[in-house]
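WARN retry 2 of 3 for item q-0093 after timeout on previous attempt; input resubmitted unchanged.
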Amino acid sequence: MRLTTFLLLCSIPLQAQDPLLEWMDKIAQQQLTRRETAIAGIRDIAAAERRRQLVRAKLLENMGGLPDYKGPLNARVTGIVTNPSYTIEKVIFESLPQFFVTANLYRPPQPGRHPAVLMSAGHTMLGKVENHIIAANLANKGFVALAYDPVGLGERMQAYDRRIGRGIAGCCANEHLQAGAQSILIGQSVARYFIWDAKRAIDYLVSRPDVDSARIGAAGCSGGGCVTTYIAALDPRVKAAAPACFINTLRLLFTGPFPDSEMSMPRFLASGLDHADFLEVTPNIPWLILATEGDFFTPAGVRPVYEEARRWYRLFGVEEKVEMFVGPGPHGTPRETREQMYGWMIRWLNGGKGDAREQELPLYPDHALQVTASGQVEDEPGSRKLHHLIREEFDKRRRPQGIPELLAELLRLQIPSGGRPPLSKTLEQNNGRIRISLESEPGVAIAGTLYLPVASGRNPALLLVKGRSTEALAEAAVAKGILVLELEVRDSPAANDNRPYLGNWLTNARADSIGRNLPAMRAHDILRGVDLLSGRDDVDAASIGAAARDGKGVWLLLAAAVDKRIGKIWLDHTPYSLKAALDNAINTNLFDAMIPGFLLHWDLPDLVRAMGTRPVLWTDPANWMGQTVPAAGAGFRYRYSGQTDEMFLAELLQ
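OK item q-0093 returned
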């Protein structure tokens, strides 16, 4: 990449006053620079082919591979809509057993074998009907077009509530994120299911007698542009691709509109990858990269990918197979973009024969394109949801390991602190309270408040992970002669878009992309707080306890499992099991406990066992919707109605 372009990209402002995002972005930019150095060293076809093999293997490894199912599609047509310009067949098939995909198959009025285009939908509740105009025009121009519902869209919602007639998780991307966190827990990416649906949709296309299997294209916008990119990169049957409003360099995307779970592969930047790798891993198929002037996937971020891909294709003498078009308007596919898409498919799949201009054709309201009788595949006999598939994968891949292996994993996650007191400074002091800042690791400062008791000498200490009602707990503890540190672990609050149930998914996802884990980093922060307490002259280092509420208790468990200086802990309203998060389509704040692959080998009770004989007070264990539940296993304690924290705090401080 030219230096001027690099400087332009890096000048994009970060979210205001977000030191953690700035710190992570510095790591991301370093990783991208290393990648660019590696790409710059590729000057011949042999080196390019080696890179292709490496990238393909890494993509498949990071997503946990693709399903190996080879069973029947069991496709059937539930209805037909016909007009003189094209015909629509309402199709349903099984991507995996009882995992139903709904689609509209558009075919031209002329008989014979036709080129075909797979149309993937973006993030709208409409699903397949988002591509109604495009698919109808393609059919009118002599193509077979298959527009289908990705998971969470159209007739494939995962948390649909018939009482209110909509999904209770919010828009489709929220459902993708829910399944994304579940997938990461078992060492996979939810993207594997989106790619598999697309592969099976192509299986359906090539099974039809009216489709020429040697002339398959793929197109889509936004989330559909992402799936188009994936399937073109990984399925050699795709011979031309036209993704819109997705391809961009992570130089910009990392601090900008970072994509949701199926649109961002695990450890993507840490693996030395960027979006250009999707184009470069393919066997030189034609790519039309589509963007719009006002999109948050900005044209400034598209151009570096386009320029790199052109240079790459130039090695093979086929530079003309990569083009870029920027249409007018915001995120989407305006008419100008659609006509570019038609022209691309005509050029590469139909020998250049056809008119790329969009036609005025008969079109239909959304309900007329509905495939299932009820409007949702969950009403099909035996229908399974995505979380069922993830739970099935967990049951198949689970390999329990012991405490020594668990401690080694926590070490790999960089949770232990080393024990030295951190660099710290006083920000404010008032009436026995000291507001402080301390360095958790180079470049990462966290904050806290010290509550100093009146008693002199060495005092017992309590670390509270700041959260619900912790200030009141701190005041009660310091009144009993306990020195308290109310610790604020690292966070990127400006990144929290406050979507229902999801918490700060974005900061977790960004951390994963650069090869770090936010729950583990927060556990490390807790231990840096312990380091601070242990190094104080007014603290009895042999009498340090800790407490946390809700999902924050997971971070405390991680910290206490590796550091015996934490003598006892109190967890309140903390979820009792990670495995329980696989039982439903919706969880609350699961991203805050999202450690890749952890659940395949251990669960939260294993962290308790790693603490040995140190006491654990666990009150009101919760499910992943924040509800207290009668959890299995000994050791849980439950409040009676009206009971306050004082009794449990006194027990912790004994």
